[in-house]
Amino acid sequence: MWRFLFALLLTSIVLSACKSDSGSTALPPPNANIPNQGDNNGQQKDEDDQEHEGEEEDITPTDPILAKLPSGVPDAAKRALDPRPIPDIGIWPFADGINQTSGTGRYVGGAYYWTDFIYDAYGAFAGPPPPHNVQTPNAGSLTYPRVALDAANFPGPDMSQADYDASKDPFQGNGADIFALAVGKTATHTYWRVDWVTLADTTAPIIAFALDIDNDSSTGTAGQFSQGWGVIPNIRTAGVDQLILISSEGVYLSDGSTSRRIGDTVIDEGSNTFVGQVPNSELSLPTDSFTVYALAGLHNGAGGFFTDMSRLGGTPFTPPVYNLGFRDYADEPLANNFWMSNSQAQALAQGDISEFALELNPQKLGDNETEAPRHGFSVRWYVSSLGPEQFGRGGIYTGQDATIHQTAQSSDDITLYAGYYDKLQPYSLWVPDGYDHAQPVAEKMTLVLHSFTQNHMQYAATMPNFLRETCNDLRQSFCLTVLGRGVSGFYEFASGVDLWEAWRHVASHYELDPTRTFTSGFSMGALGSQRLMIKYPDVFAAGVILAGAQSDEPGIADQNGNVPGCFGEIQLENLKWNGYYHAAGSLDQLIPITQQRDTANRMRDLGYRYTFDHYLAEDHVAWVLKDGQYPAFAAATDWLIGTSDRGDSAPTHNASTPGEIIYRFTGNDQHPKFGLGADGAWWISGLTVADPEAPVQGYSPSPSQSGLDCTFSNTFSGQTIPPRAARVHAISGALPYPTISGLISPAAVPDGSNPQFRPDQNTSARIQQTGPHTHEFQAWQLGETPAANGLMSLTLQNVATAIIDMADAGLATHKDWEIKVSSDTAATITLTQLMPGTLVEVEGVRQAVDKGSATIDIVAGDSTIRRTP
Questions:
Q1: Nearest to residue 375, comparing CAs of 428, 432, 334?
Q2: CATH number given to 104-364
């Protein structure tokens, strides 16, 4: 396992070159009616607080956002998102107008607002990135101290060391990261505001607003190019007349050489906000446009910038600046730009930041601009339910091995594989160009999950053709990539919370079609997609698996306290109603082709629909780097858009209330603390395991699993985790499906041709080449649909509890429904949505229905539950 992770880490370096349990506070309960300010920007609020009367006068808050999400989403997607705290009007006397999209700004409510990119504050390029940044390199080279700047052991212990104390770290790996900037004006003052992403200690950061008031580069800080600003050395942009320095020490005015204090800084720690008020008598601004720069760094404790960059990863010539404001998408091209910091790092290395400026027009401060609608790719943010209160700290983990810095002591360890701890979290979103913001029509959603060592920018940075063709050019879809709280979260625990909360946030701003949702991903993103479909098969129509496998060594799938690979392979039987596409390379160094082949074989042997493209000359890493030569995984996009007429194409919609449910689950996937839980699908829910120590049933190892048992042991902690595994198989005769009369495969296509070997062909509008590969698939040949009836068969293996929605199962209105139960242990079955006046009989004992529900205890063996007159 360690060799596997080390190989992945080395691979990520190659890829980049080419381009305590914290005493956490409980999360709010599902559907908690939390007051919410939305995004405080005049757009649609995130929640609707209207209420309606329910059965027996129960008052239940409505949630219009859930109508845009598939019904099977876990509780993490059902909670009202936390509001973004905003400073009191006495601190900031203007309407709030921070944009949802990073790298954009607007005038509103008497002020101008700019939203910066999150986690982009690493300053100038001065050599290799810090060790923790080699996976998705933040282009800057600066690091943060791990203790106070005046501490004797500065920069202090590494975060991965036992003596690291977050409470004594004023920076926490991210102390000068700008979230938002704002400038407002009243009759007596101008107001200058910065909201920080991380504010562990108010003494840590400093912001400078540099002003070219007369728009004349020959005045102010002119001189020779080698002449820098005295108060911020090694910055040489000409023409700056005044600087406003804002820190915990106060507000200072400077001409670039000397500074004087003019007042106190107003600090609101709830919103991580600094506000500096400058009397108009102190600063004479023009009535027309003037130029503003924004520079953030570390505070020296005396109202200025800490300038000894040689101790923080820089050189004597490196500016003491970690973050620049007013950079947009034109300034920061997406290619190989993992944190939107490449241009910033290069500009700071040269000392010339003149390209990153705001032309501020005081005459427009009274305007009320709406946030401009966007199409295509952008980076956005939301406020998570998780933050320093739950994690025990904010900021970024900067230990040298950020991918494996936590050891799972229990499945409820919130910090497990999380590396980004602030409540503000970024995600990337593609909005298809056919989406009409003025008159929106609900569009499909596709998750595009990043791989191990990567982040939410992976596909825009390294696979833009795949992203553009999958989400826009060949297929119109919203496409969401989340940071997942880190580079190795596997979309479990805090990483999983991030996924579902970000998806909910998208639904709060756009119209999504909950019946057309898909997941996809490369490497760890492929494993994540497989696990998500296995746990929530009713949420997704289909999944695109690019270089991933559920048939794997036990370490890879359970490294986050989850399940071993052998059980993951068995759980593929949950995917009867999901489309499944898998692409693999023969030379894959990290997830061997034998294991990927076994995963596809499992789908084949189950008699399920699947497509498997086997690329004969591709590996795990170089494959994705070929996006500039041809669209990597273009055949996957072909499958999604349904180019084949033989049945080997993605379903167009999620399966709706199927008559047969096969659901194999593990209690290790159920985490109510996080609002996560794989406890059923469609009309079965509330599944729990009877005996957590019972051995896994139905395990027949694939060749790559030969000799392995299905033990649940955590590789890092050394703990043995009880299997907690169970299975339910239910068939409702009220929801008949056409019989599967045969299977269609390359050897049995209707016209007799054999499409198994495909040379270079796809429908990419850009270039017609994918690389030679073998193409196999299995599709269903359907026969007649049997007549509906009121019978259900229910087989339970190691199941303690189950809830059956009788209305969704189609049985509630049948006068003579009957459930034949076969269970290997005692169990409790709850039937809901029963018709009023219904009586339920179990082995001759009648039971009245209470409020549409009946709870029935059954013994091991065979039982019959029926409706009686």
A1: 432
A2: 2.60.40
Q: What single string gives the DSSP state of each residue in 19-60?
A: -----PPPPPPTT------TTSSSS--S----EEE-GGG-EE
On whether the CB atoms of residues 314 and 126 are closer than 8 A, the answer is yes
DSSP track, 800-835? EEEEEETTTTT-TT-TT-EEEEEESS-EEEEEESPP
- Tokens standing for 86? 């905003």
Instruction: Give the confidence band of 625 by pLDDT, cuts at 50, 70, 90.
Output: confident
Mean pLDDT of 643-652: 83
pLDDT for the residue 343? 98
Q: Which two tokens stand for residue 279?
A: 């009397």
Tell me whether strands 610-615 and 660-666 are parallel, antiparallel or unpaired: unpaired
Nearest to 308 by CA among 495, 155, 81, 533: 155
Are 135 and 114 in contact, with CB atoms under 8 Å apart?
no
pLDDT tens string 481-506: 999 998 888 898 899 999 999 999 99
pLDDT digits (tens, 9 = 90+) for 696-743: 777 666 665 555 556 655 555 566 666 778 999 999 999 999 998 878
Q: Tell me the one-letter amino acid at 13.
A: I
For residue range 835-857, what is the model confidence (pLDDT) as tens digits? 888 889 998 888 888 889 999 99
Peptide bond between residue 155 and the one before it cis (omega within 30 degrees of 0): yes
Q: CA of 236: how far to CAs of 187, 218, 245, 412, in Å?
A: 33, 13, 17, 51
Smallest CA-to-CA distance from 459 within 499, 498, 428, 487 is with: 428
Residues forming CATH 2.60.40 domain(s) in the chain? 104-364
Rounded to the nearest angstrom, the gap between the alpha carbon of residue 707 and the centroid of all alpha carbons in its chain is 36
